[in-house]
């Protein structure tokens, strides 16, 4: 992997603000920052949180080495005093928020950061770049797996985005319901299931399709999946079963009218005795294409471009805003923007979800001072949506690594099942449940 500093994956103004506030004394003021989105992508019914584990991974390495500090100094980005402050920088604040795989809606307090202004402001760009992209991919993956109706979906989008986004997308896709990825680095880093066999060029480099199939089966065994649409699908399926026998693991179709072809291939496989051979389809699939294939005899899907681009919504428009800060008297004060169409809700937040007949019916966001929130008593039937990720600089390890991703995958399925069924509609509409905000 490239050797880079997570602390430089940021906008320059984070450091110029730090420099100015260190000089005027406000850098050490206690603050609360909040990540939220004002609206979901047009027509979407819900969003899925993803990327928090990656943020925690980056946070552990969020410091500057001598070369990084020299870069900031040589460019005149910060003063010598700020360079000295940064030499031993580590985040010592606290982070809480929605767990990965959880559903979010407009104004959901997805993450809250508590610490000094200086340390919290440096995190803004990194946090937003991770959450906006990963949550967009997870949200798209959720729509796709819902449309697939329990048929496995696999990530094949690595060649349709930049190399590092491909790794992030693989992880986020699994949070959103996918079962595995073609990206080997993502599989290695996060312990994900890796999938893949051969492309059309493998068939083309051989003298015949039969030679290609024999080669693949010799290398990978009869349980492999053979790509059958390089030339003529009917002839390819016949050859595939002749070479592998009825134990052939699967065939993949990557072009044409996928539903009609899948039906013909299924009937042909059954007629040849390959009744257990699975059918995988690929070819620029999105949630709408998957929904159209629900009645087709398809066993699994490979999804690429539309997954890694958020299926038309490549960002969640999340923002990172200061909602509370320490005053000159040492007392915490709620703050808010009043900009037109960009006003924010002041104060730190609690978040709950209420249910009726075991279905979510409302998101409840409670805002106020630390004292007022501590004294607040929610309805005992409401679910608390906030968990602790970091406590005074100490990262809770349960939210990182392979197990955290698998737990997020399972939580996503449970949380989606708790939403009204209209959440899974692909028709454009408003968020499936409202968000009610109360300021104490």
Automatic annotation (TrEMBL):
Quote the catalytic activity from the record.
5-phospho-alpha-D-ribose 1-diphosphate + nicotinate + ATP + H2O = nicotinate beta-D-ribonucleotide + ADP + phosphate + diphosphate
Q: Does the keyword NADP apply?
A: no
What GO molecular function terms would the record report?
glycosyltransferase activity; nicotinate phosphoribosyltransferase activity
Q: Which InterPro entries match?
A: Aldolase_TIM, N/Namide_PRibTrfase, NAPRTase_N, Nic_PRibTrfase-Fam, Nic_PRibTrfase_pncB, Nicotinate_pribotase-like_C
Nicotinate/nicotinamide phosphoribosyltransferase domain: which residues? 153-322
| Pathway the protein contributes to | Cofactor biosynthesis; NAD(+) biosynthesis; nicotinate D-ribonucleotide from nicotinate: step 1/1
Ranges of residues in domain Nicotinate phosphoribosyltransferase N-terminal: 8-132
Under Pfam families, the record lists: NAPRTase (PF04095), NAPRTase_N (PF17767)
In the Enzyme Commission scheme, what number(s) does this protein have?
6.3.4.21
What the entry says about post-translational processing? Transiently phosphorylated on a His residue during the reaction cycle. Phosphorylation strongly increases the affinity for substrates and increases the rate of nicotinate D-ribonucleotide production. Dephosphorylation regenerates the low-affinity form of the enzyme, leading to product release.
Q: Which CDD domains match?
A: NAPRTase_A
Q: Which GO terms describe its biological process?
A: NAD+ biosynthetic process via the salvage pathway
Q: What class of enzyme is it?
A: ligase
Key words, A-Z: Glycosyltransferase, Ligase, Phosphoprotein, Pyridine nucleotide biosynthesis, Transferase
Q: Which GO terms describe its cellular component?
A: cytosol
Function, please? Catalyzes the first step in the biosynthesis of NAD from nicotinic acid, the ATP-dependent synthesis of beta-nicotinate D-ribonucleotide from nicotinate and 5-phospho-D-ribose 1-phosphate.
Q: Which family does it belong to?
A: Belongs to the NAPRTase family.
Designated name of the protein: Nicotinate phosphoribosyltransferase
Species the sequence originates in:
Bifidobacterium eulemuris
Organism lineage:
Bacteria, Bacillati, Actinomycetota, Actinomycetes, Bifidobacteriales
């Amino acid at each position: 992997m490239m050797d880079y500093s997570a602390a430089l994956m940021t906008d320059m103004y984070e450091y110029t603000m730090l420099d100015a506030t260190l000089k005027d004394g406000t850098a050490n003021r206690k603050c609360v920052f909040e990540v939220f989105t004002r609206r979901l992508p047009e027509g979407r019914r819900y969003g899925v949180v993803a990327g928090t584990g990656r943020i925690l991974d980056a946070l552990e390495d969020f410091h500057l080495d001598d070369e990084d500090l020299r870069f900031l100094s040589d460019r005149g980005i910060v003063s010598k005093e700020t360079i000295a402050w940064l030499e031993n920088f580590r985040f010592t604040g606290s982070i809480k928020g929605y767990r990965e795989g959880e559903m979010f809606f407009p104004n959901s307090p997805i993450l809250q950061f508590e610490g000094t202004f200086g340390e919290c402001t440096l995190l803004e760009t990194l946090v937003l770049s991770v959450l906006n992209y990963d949550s967009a991919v997870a949200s798209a993956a959720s729509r796709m797996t819902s449309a697939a109706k329990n048929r496995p979906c696999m990530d094949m989008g690595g060649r349709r985005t930049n190399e590092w986004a491909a790794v992030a997308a693989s992880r986020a896709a699994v949070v959103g319901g996918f079962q595995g990825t073609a990206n080997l680095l993502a599989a290695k880093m996060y312990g994900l299931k890796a999938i893949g066999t051969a492309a059309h060029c493998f068939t083309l480099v051989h003298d015949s399709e039969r030679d290609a199939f024999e080669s693949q089966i010799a290398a990978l065994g009869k349980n492999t999946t053979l790509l059958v649409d390089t030339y003529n699908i009917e002839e390819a399926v016949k050859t595939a079963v002749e070479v592998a026998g009825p134990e052939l693991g699967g065939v993949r179709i990557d072009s044409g009218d996928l539903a009609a072809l899948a039906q013909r291939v299924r009937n042909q496989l059954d007629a040849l005795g390959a009744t257990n051979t699975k059918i995988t389809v690929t070819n620029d699939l999105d949630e709408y294409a998957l929904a159209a294939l629900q009645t087709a005899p398809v066993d699994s899907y490979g999804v690429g471009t539309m997954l890694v681009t958020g299926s038309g919504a490549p960002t969640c428009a999340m923002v990172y805003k200061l909602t509370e800060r320490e005053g000159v008297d040492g007392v915490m004060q709620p703050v808010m923007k009043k900009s037109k169409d960009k006003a924010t809700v002041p104060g730190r937040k609690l978040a709950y979800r209420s249910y009726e007949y075991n279905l979510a019916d409302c998101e409840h966001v409670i805002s106020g001072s630390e004292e007022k929130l501590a004294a607040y008593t929610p309805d005992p039937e409401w679910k608390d949506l906030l968990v602790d990720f970091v406590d005074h600089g100490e990262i809770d390890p349960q939210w990182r690594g392979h197990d955290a991703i698998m737990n997020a995958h399972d939580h996503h399925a449970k949380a989606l099942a708790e939403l009204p069924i209209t959440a899974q509609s692909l028709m454009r509409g408003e968020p499936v449940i409202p968000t009610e905000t109360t300021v104490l």
